[in-house]
Amino acid sequence: MTFRELYGREPDGRWAAPGRVNLIGEHVDYAQGLCLPFAIAERTVVEVAARDDDRLRLRSLAEDGAWEGALADVGPGSPGGWAGYVAGVLWALRRAGHRVGGIDLLVTDTVPLGAGLSSSAALECSAALAVDELFGLGLGGSIAGRRTLAAACVSAENDVVGAATGGMDQAAALLATAGHALLLDTRDGTARAVPFAPAADGLVVLVIDTRVRHRLADGQYGKRRAAVEKAAAALGMPSLRGATLDEIRTLAADLMPRARHIVTEIARVRETVMLLDAGRLREIGPLLDASHASLAHDYEVSSAELDLACTAAREAGALGARMTGGGFGGSAIALVPVERVAALSDAVRAAFADAGFRAPHIRGEEPSAGAARVS
C-alpha cells in the first residue's frame, strides 16, 4: 500500500529518525542523571503531507490500527496504540504555542518494534521533524530547536501515551552524530559528542534482540520511576543525581536498592566517558558488566533471556555485556572483538536453544547520525 493509494496524492516529503542503543546510563534519565546513548542505522521512516484543516489521518505498514480524527480529539489516552505517539507530538507542539495543523502520514519503515531500541522515540522524532518543516516552525535546523522538538516528543509519550519515560531516547534520535555517543545530562539538558567508533578499535557492538517484546506503558517502568522519585523525596532532594551511597543507606528497604542503582549507574557513566575521551574503549567492558548486574539485581528490570544473552556473550569472549533499554525483554548489547563475532553469535544462539528460548536476532551496530529529511 502506497501513500498515493491511501490518500490520493503524493507526500510532501519523507523523514527518518534512528533508533538508539544506550551504551550505559540506564533508567537514570528520569532521575536527572547522565546517559550515553548512540543512534543506530535502523530508522523509522514516515511519509507526510500537510492538510489545510486540523484532521489527522495516520497509517502504518508495520502496525495495525489506523487512526483518523481531529487534532482537538487528541489528549491523554487518545488515540491509543502507536498512533498516540504521532498525534501526541502535534498535540504537544500546539499546547506549547506552535501553529500546527492536520497531516496525512504513513509509516513505511520502522526500527525493530519492542526490541529495546526505542522504536517509539524514532516514530515521534520522525513525525516531529516532518511537522516542523511542513508548518514552518523553524526548530529542526538548530540544536536548541531540536531540543524543543525532543521535549514535545517526551510530552507525547508521557502525557498522551501514558509511558513515564525520560528524555534520553528523543535526544539521541534528534541530536546524535555519526562516530560518537551522546553524553546527555538530563538535569540541565546539555549534551556533547563523545568519541565512540568501535570499528576503529577492532570491535563491534552486537545487539542481541531476545525477541521478547517489551512495552513501556505496561506499568513496570512507571513503578520504577515512582520508586526513584519517592526515594529522592525521602532524602529531601529534588532528584537522586547528587545522592551518595551513604545517604541512600538510610532509605527504606524497598527503596534502597532502586536508589543504589541510580547512584552507581551515574558513576559508571562518568567513568565510561573518561575512558572514551582518553581513547581507552577496550577498558569499558567491566563497567558494562557492572551495569547489567545492577539492573538485574538492584533495579530488577532484566529477564531470563537478557541475563542469558549477557552471560553467554561474556563466556564466548565479549569484553562486556549488558541489557539496554527499559528492560523486561528487548535487547542486550555486547562489546566484541571483530574476530570473535561469528563464534560468539553461534554460542549465544546455542545457549538460547538449550534453554528453550526463541532464537535471538543478532546484529552489529555502529554509531550513526540523527533524524533528517530523506527526500
UniProtKB/TrEMBL annotation:
InterPro entries linked to this entry: Galactokinase, Galactokinase_CS, GalKase_N, GHMP_kinase_C_dom, GHMP_kinase_C_sf, GHMP_kinase_N_dom, GHMP_knse_ATP-bd_CS, Mevalonate/galactokinase
PROSITE patterns in the cross-refs: GALACTOKINASE (PS00106), GHMP_KINASES_ATP (PS00627)
EC number, as in UniProt: 2.7.1.6
Keyword Methyltransferase: no
Sequence ranges assigned to domain Galactokinase N-terminal in this UniProt record: 2-49
Key words, A-Z: ATP-binding, Carbohydrate metabolism, Galactose metabolism, Kinase, Nucleotide-binding, Transferase
Short name of one Pfam family: GalKase_gal_bdg
Enzyme class name: transferase
Protein name: Galactokinase
Gene, per the UniProt record: galK
Isomerase is among the record's keywords: no
Organism from which the protein derives: Pseudonocardia aurantiaca
